[in-house]
């Protein structure tokens, strides 16, 4: 055999050793260069700042444009100092260099050129950017150009940027509209040139501008827009609403396409041209003003009028509009006026079915601004006879329930008693329960409990609420008994069909090599002695293990090459994104961070503080307490002074019951949810139901994000013109770091040997595996510790996989499964998409430091992988799913799921070959080269890529990690692999659920290091 040529393996071994040393040398040289660059950059920044304030320093030919870019970012609010700074650099030289790069065929180079030209801000640079914007086809590059022109701020650029909106994607238009709005008065002067234009993109621009700029022209434009829509609705109703062949206006779905042409959707025929007629409906061509896009625009115009010009919106023509949405917005506008007349009008509209919702919200706002009108609502409620109207009014009164409770001990409290009873019967119990638990006045308690007992007599559901959430003493006083804690659900049953399939795979894996052996040596099977046959079989198996090791390490090395390319691109693009750009309105998506918490009392406050203090323009934090058995919930309630409230949300995903929602109005970004235990995936689904933002970010509650982690992850959406339904961040072990007030004070390597082995494992997995797969758009795993998903995509696919959800099944690998399901749906619907990974968006999480916990974790991971691959087996080797079906899924099936089965046999054969005395030095060398040297190359190369983002470890710690990279090949990786084999066998047992690991907590680590 060619592979048995010993000299070749010796040569390969020496080459790999040489490459390993080169990579290690480059790793340490890179640290030295990094120190020099940091020192030089600080020196240059100091000189540039000195020059900016008028000190004579002379032009330094070594000044880099990147240094000038950073200083310019700091001086954005000081034009004179910025102008002084420009005099210290070679503007002409930089301008010439980047004007040339502006014509580059490479997007990243072009974006860099755009950013640096915009910071130079010369006339020649501006003209070049305008010309490039006219011809550029890629939305991401166009966005950077538009932002550069907005930063230069010359009014001559306004027509060019405006025209770039035509036929552009929604991604581009939403962001560039606000960039144009930054021109302020200059754009307002330009308005007369475009007010008459009918393109939907131009109308959207003007409406967006009207939301941030006040003028009579814009007010008139908004009014005209709303009036036109109202007239169109009235005409359509008149045309279709009468006669024998009348058609309900709701059945006609008008759609304005991006190019402004008219088209129409009919539920019975599909898309038809404006001149066609529907087989079932009588239709006539209508202008683009009947389009869905136009309707959304009109509603936005109504909301702007309500906020900025409420008197115009709260007039009779809109209050009597035939468009229900316009009418409700007009009703809401009445709350901006403090007058008895407006309150009377609102009480009139609350009696009308189509305006009740708007009236309730408006009255609530009006009474909040001026409590004097609250008495009028009380009188209206007491005098009202219509049950439905009383229900609407009690919604408003329930917001002031403490006021009525305190009146219970006063004379003439009959009205208060009636109102409290009605509020409870409506099901708004949270405020009453919270009040009773915190109240110290025995008289108030007695009066309120008397009312509660009367109301509870007729409602079993209310009895359950009060018995579950009231303190034990109060439960007894109400004549109730506290419910016993439900026994753990027996939903987790072994899937017999799945286990049969896995058993066949297991048997096949054990029979595969013997079958290959029989095929290769069929002519000697009946001739050679059994002992000789065994020796030959064992030797063959050792070679197969070498082949396997070479194959998987070659895959890693190929991925590493493209990981490096990805890192270089991300690094270059991040360096040209200044904070001002990222914090511009609508530039980045809004995000709801969801952190499931189960028995996290030791770390929860540090985690929440860290997440609340993230540097991001628009985010909220939702902590989901998944039925913790410790004091996680009480710790949060006490620390943040939370109050249980009746929180209205839509349950679009099925999940376990929510026990309560807790808020503190002074901390509007924080929402705490308490729910029945259902596992991590179920908790995430609850969080998604409550989330109010465009994206949801799943994160473990025992993890900490770096300040800019969310910013770095979300900023990847600016670099892709295709949809990004999911993005993943980098995970690093926090063991060894010191944490204070939710912030990582110092980073370091853990003292635990087990944690150190996991550190190198994490770096290898994320830097080579996930970055590389992301490059090929084959990324299937986004860690549950830190992932970002488009909310609507998650809901459309049914949320995280749980037994309570759409697919009625559970998985412990909810993070990977969701990514696979989203990718599957996108492929099946022929939508272009990219799932991305950010190498520099760091999340720090605690890793197990004892063997028992680590074993549970690895069992859980492997079970999740198997469940996902079997659940989505249709995708395996299926060309219909592109590279995901033909490359990514087969890789995970062969190397990740099946691999441990062959590795277990291989390790057994190595031991057997030692016992038989046939493990000669040639086989040992082959295994050493294929397993140790190639594995070490993958590990140190991953370390090299990791260190590009910054210095996570000291030089001494890096040396330690390299040593551990070598040591892990002599038993540790093999032992971990045996756990994966154990995880496979564990599939034949009943699932054990989430199996949350015990945590030491951040404070424990902090004390250990001091």
From TrEMBL:
What sections of the protein cross the membrane?
Answer: 6-29, 501-523, 543-567, 901-919, 925-946
Give the Glycosyltransferase 2-like domain ranges: 592-717
UniProt cross-references to Pfam families, sorted A to Z:
Glycos_transf_2
Keyword tags: Glycosyltransferase, Membrane, Transferase, Transmembrane, Transmembrane helix
What CDD domains does the database record attribute to this sequence? CESA_like
The record's comment on protein family reads:
Belongs to the glycosyltransferase 2 family.
Please state what the protein is called.
Glycosyltransferase
Annotated organism of origin: Acetobacterium fimetarium
- Organism lineage string: Bacteria, Bacillati, Bacillota, Clostridia, Eubacteriales
């Amino acid at each position: 055999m060619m592979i048995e040529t010993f000299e070749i393996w010796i040569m390969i071994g020496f080459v790999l050793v040489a490459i390993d040393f080169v990579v290690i040398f480059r790793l340490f040289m890179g640290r030295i260069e990094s120190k020099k660059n940091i020192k030089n950059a600080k020196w240059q920044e100091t000189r540039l700042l000195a020059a900016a304030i008028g000190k004579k320093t002379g032009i330094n030919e070594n000044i880099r444009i990147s240094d000038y870019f950073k200083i310019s970012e700091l001086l954005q609010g000081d034009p004179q100092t910025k102008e002084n700074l420009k005099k210290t650099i070679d503007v002409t030289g930089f301008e010439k260099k980047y004007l040339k790069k502006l014509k580059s065929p490479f997007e990243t180079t072009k974006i860099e050129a755009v950013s640096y030209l915009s910071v130079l801000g010369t006339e020649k640079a501006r003209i070049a950017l305008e010309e490039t914007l006219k011809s550029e086809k890629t939305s991401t590059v166009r966005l950077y150009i538009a932002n550069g022109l907005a930063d230069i701020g010359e009014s001559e650029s306004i027509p060019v940027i405006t025209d770039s909106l035509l036929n552009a994607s929604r991604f581009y238009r939403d962001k560039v509209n606000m960039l144009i709005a930054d021109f302020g008065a200059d754009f307002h002067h330009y308005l007369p040139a475009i007010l008459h234009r009918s393109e939907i993109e131009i109308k959207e621009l003007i409406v967006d501008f009207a939301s941030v700029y006040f003028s009579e022209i814009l007010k008139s434009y908004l009014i005209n827009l709303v009036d036109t829509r109202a007239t169109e609705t009235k005409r359509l109703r008149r045309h279709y609403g009468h006669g024998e062949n009348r058609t309900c206006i709701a059945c006609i779905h008008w759609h304005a396409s991006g190019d402004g042409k008219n088209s129409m959707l009919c539920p019975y025929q599909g898309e038809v041209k404006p001149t066609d007629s529907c087989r079932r409906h009588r239709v006539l061509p209508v202008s683009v003003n009947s389009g869905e896009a136009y309707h959304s625009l009109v509603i936005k115009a109504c909301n702007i009028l309500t906020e900025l010009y409420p008197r115009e919106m709260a007039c009779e023509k809109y209050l009597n509009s035939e468009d229900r949405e316009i009418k409700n917005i007009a009703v809401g506008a009445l709350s901006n006026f403090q007058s008895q007349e407006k309150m009377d009008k609102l009480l009139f509209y609350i009696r009308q079915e189509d305006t009740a919702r708007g009236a309730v919200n408006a009255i609530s706002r009006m009474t909040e601004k001026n409590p004097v009108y609250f008495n009028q609502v009380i009188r209206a409620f007491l005098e009202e006879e219509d049950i439905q109207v009383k229900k609407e009014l009690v919604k408003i009164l329930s917001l002031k329930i403490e006021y009525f409770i305190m009146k219970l001990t006063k004379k003439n409290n009959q009205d208060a008693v009636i109102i409290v009873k009605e509020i409870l019967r409506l099901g708004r119990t949270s405020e009453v329960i919270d009040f009773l638990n915190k109240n110290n006045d025995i008289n108030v308690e007695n009066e309120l409990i008397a009312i509660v007992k009367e109301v509870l007599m007729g409602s079993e559901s209310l009895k359950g609420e009060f018995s579950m959430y009231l303190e034990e003493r109060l439960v007894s006083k109400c004549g109730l008994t506290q419910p016993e804690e439900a026994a753990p659900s027996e939903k987790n049953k072994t899937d017999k069909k799945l286990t049969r399939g896995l058993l066949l795979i297991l048997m096949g894996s054990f029979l595969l090599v013997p079958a290959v052996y029989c095929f290769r040596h069929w002519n000697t099977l009946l001739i050679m002695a059994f002992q000789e046959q065994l020796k030959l079989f064992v030797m063959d198996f050792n070679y197969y293990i070498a082949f396997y090791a070479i194959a998987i390490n070659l895959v890693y090395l190929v991925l590493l090459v493209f990981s490096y390319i990805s890192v270089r691109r991300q690094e270059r693009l991040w360096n040209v994104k200044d904070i001002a750009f990222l914090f511009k309105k609508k530039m980045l998506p809004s995000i709801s961070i969801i952190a499931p918490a189960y028995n996290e009392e030791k770390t929860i406050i540090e985690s929440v503080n860290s997440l609340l203090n993230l540097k991001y323009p628009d985010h909220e934090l939702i902590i989901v307490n998944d039925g913790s058995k410790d004091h996680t919930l009480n710790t949060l309630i006490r620390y943040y002074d939370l109050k249980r409230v009746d929180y209205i949300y839509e349950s679009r995903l099925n999940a376990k019951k929510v026990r309560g929602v807790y808020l503190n109005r002074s901390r509007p970004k924080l929402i705490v949810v308490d729910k029945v235990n259902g596992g991590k995936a179920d908790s995430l689904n609850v969080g998604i139901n409550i989330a109010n933002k465009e994206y949801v970010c799943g994160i473990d509650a025992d993890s900490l994000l770096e300040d800019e982690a969310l910013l770095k992850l979300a900023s990847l959406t600016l670099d892709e013109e295709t949809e990004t339904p999911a993005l993943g961040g980098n995970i690093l072990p926090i063991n060894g770091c010191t944490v204070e007030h939710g912030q990582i004070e110092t980073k370091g390597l853990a003292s635990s040997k087990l944690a150190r082995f996991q550190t190198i494992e994490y770096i290898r997995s994320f830097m080579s595996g996930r970055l590389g797969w992301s490059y090929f758009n084959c990324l299937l795993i986004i860690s549950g510790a830190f992932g970002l998903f488009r909310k609507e995509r998650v809901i459309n696919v049914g949320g995280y996989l749980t037994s309570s959800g759409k697919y009625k099944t559970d998985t412990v690998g909810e993070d990977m499964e969701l990514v696979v399901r989203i990718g599957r749906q996108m492929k099946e619907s022929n939508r272009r998409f990219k799932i991305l990974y950010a190498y520099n968006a760091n999340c720090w999480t605690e890793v197990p430091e004892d063997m028992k916990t680590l074993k549970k974790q690895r069992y859980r991971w492997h079970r999740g992988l198997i469940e996902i691959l079997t659940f989505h087996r249709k995708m395996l080797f299926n060309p219909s799913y592109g590279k995901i079906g033909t490359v990514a899924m087969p890789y995970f099936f062969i190397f990740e799921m099946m691999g441990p089965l062959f590795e277990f046999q291989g390790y057994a054969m190595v031991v057997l070959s030692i016992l038989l005395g046939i493990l000669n030095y040639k086989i040992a060398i082959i295994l050493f080269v294929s397993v140790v040297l190639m594995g070490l190359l993958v590990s140190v190369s991953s370390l090299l890529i990791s260190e590009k983002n910054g210095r996570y470890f000291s030089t001494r710690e890096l040396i330690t990690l390299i040593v551990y990279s070598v040591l892990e090949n002599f038993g540790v990786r093999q032992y971990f692999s045996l756990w994966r084999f154990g995880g496979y066998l564990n599939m034949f047992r009943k699932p054990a659920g989430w199996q949350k690991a015990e945590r030491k907590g951040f404070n424990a680590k902090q004390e250990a290091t001091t």
